Amino acid sequence: MTSDSLWKEILEYGRWAPSPHNIQSWRFRIEDATTVTLLYDPERLLPDTDPSGRFCMVGFGILLELLSIAASPHGLKVVASYEFEDTYLDPKKVGLQPLARLRLVQRDEAEKESFDRQLILDRRTSRLPYDDRPVAAPVLAKLSAVAASYGHLLEFSSDPKDVAWIVRLNAETMFFDMSEPLSRNEVGSWIRYSRAEARRKADGLAAYAMNFPGWLMGLFVKHNWLFRIPGVYQFTRAVYIASMRGTRTVAWISGPFAVHEDWENTGRMMARLWLTMTSHGVYLHPFGSVITNGKAHKLMVDHFSDSAQKRQHDLWMLVRLGHSDLPPKAWRMTLDQLLVD
Ligand SMILES: Cc1cc2nc3c(=O)[nH]c(=O)nc-3n(C[C@H](O)[C@H](O)[C@H](O)COP(=O)(O)O)c2cc1C
After folding, report:
1. Where are the domains of the chain?
2. pLDDT tens across 111-168, in order?
3. DSSP readout, 103-171?
4. Distances in Å between the alpha carbon of 242 and those of 18, 199, 207?
5. Ligand 1 center to residue 204 CA distance, Å?
6. How many Å apart are CA 14 and CA 8, to the nearest integer?
7. Pair 214, 193: CB distance under 8 Å
């Protein structure tokens, strides 16, 4: 193997890492056979909807964990060290910025990887209807155990009333957030309305992956006032809620989520939660608006106040979980596009 080829093999898995709005802010510079510099593109962050960069950093945490899993068949892991000025992602910087040095290091016996790296390629977000089956209790127990091993608490409900309440809260919050120009413009800039645009840019939220007609999404983003007309709003919200029919399980996660290290750790956990789901044929669909919108967040916390006593940290993630048809694959940039000289 040449000095580049092992890294290229590993990074080929990493490029399938999920990121908020599929922004793929990462870039890689291969230094030598064991070292890569991980960089970020400040133009591919979300300064208006994720001002601290915490969710973008969760994406980097996921990437780091997936790279390490991808290296495991070679008896290796990927270790990240933050040796540069920035440990926080800064959207005000100009040009690509170094974030961390990644090194390939030998794994010892106790660090044997349990995941098959094929799961990285099979993992997807599913915004399709689910098939009316709640997620099986042993799978939920496994997911809770993964979260607990990272110091997080994963709670869930398969009570139809809770599920319907959360699906509706998410829909109302998403519509409210999109009526605000700041959020709408930032999210709108990442929406890819046609299949051709999604393929050409190879990033962003493709309407087909969102399971929403591109033309309706275009109207929603570019002529949002239309959706404040009574009747039009109710109709579109009903279409959106119907797109999630068959959902029988929702889950939410709380844990340390204040500083850079927390966000990376959270991302690493999320990678392992997601692959656990993939290995059991379970899909997830995050409901980010409920977490980031202050009013919806409080409603959510108050609604589940019974279990709030066990909760030592704030919620940072809410998802619906279930089984669906194979969701469409969201495009990714090619490795050549992600590699920097
Ligand atoms: C930290 C994080 C937060 C996300 N939040 C949302 C969300 O609020 N709503 C949503 O529909 N998808 C959300 N996603 C899913 C991404 O949009 C998705 O991973 C990306 O578009 C790539 O698609 P894939 O997961 O099918 O590969 C989130 C992903 C990550 C990593």
Report:
1. 3-123, 137-322
2. 999 999 999 999 999 999 999 999 999 999 999 999 999 999 999 999 999 999 999 9
3. EEEE--GGG---S-THHHHH--B--SPP-SPPPPHHHHHHHHHHHHHTT-EEEEE--HHHHHHHHHHHH
4. 25, 27, 16
5. 10
6. 10
7. yes
Q: At what angle are helices 160-178 and 294-303 packed, to 10 degrees? A: 170
Q: Which residue's CA lies nearest to atom 23 of ligand 1?
A: 330
Residue written as token pair 């694959």: 329
Distance 127 CA to ligand 1 centre (A): 10
The set of protein residues with a Cβ atom below 6 angstroms from ligand 1 is 18-22, 55, 58-59, 62, 124-125, 127, 205, 285-286, 288, 330
Mean pLDDT of the chain: 96
Please tell me the distance from the alpha carbon of residue 80 to that of residue 64, in angstroms, as a whole number: 8
**pTM listed for this prediction:** 0.97
Q: How far are the Cα atoms of 39, 248, 329 from residue 212, in angstroms, in the given order?
A: 33, 21, 15
Q: In this structure, which residue's CA is closest to atom 14 in ligand 1?
A: 20
Distance from residue 182's CA to the centre of ligand 1 (Å): 20
At 23, list the tokens.
């922004």
Task: Give residue 312 CA to ligand 1 midpoint distance, Å.
Answer: 25
The predicted-structure confidence for 75-87, as pLDDT tens digits, reads as follows: 999 999 999 988 9
Say how many Å lie between the CA of residue 230 and the centre of ligand 1: 30
* Tokens, residue 37: 């510099």
CA of 6 relative to ligand 1 center, distance in Å: 28
- Evaluate whether the domain defined by 137-322 bears CATH number 2.60.40: no
Q: What is the CATH number of domain 3-123?
A: 3.40.109.10
Name the helix (H) or strand (E) containing 12.
Answer: helix 3-14
**Residue to mutate (ligand 1; options 13, 22, 25, 320; most atoms within 8 A of CB):** 22
Kind and range of the H or E run holding 315: strand 315-322
Cβ pair 287, 299 in contact under 8 A: no
Sequence letter at residue 272 = R
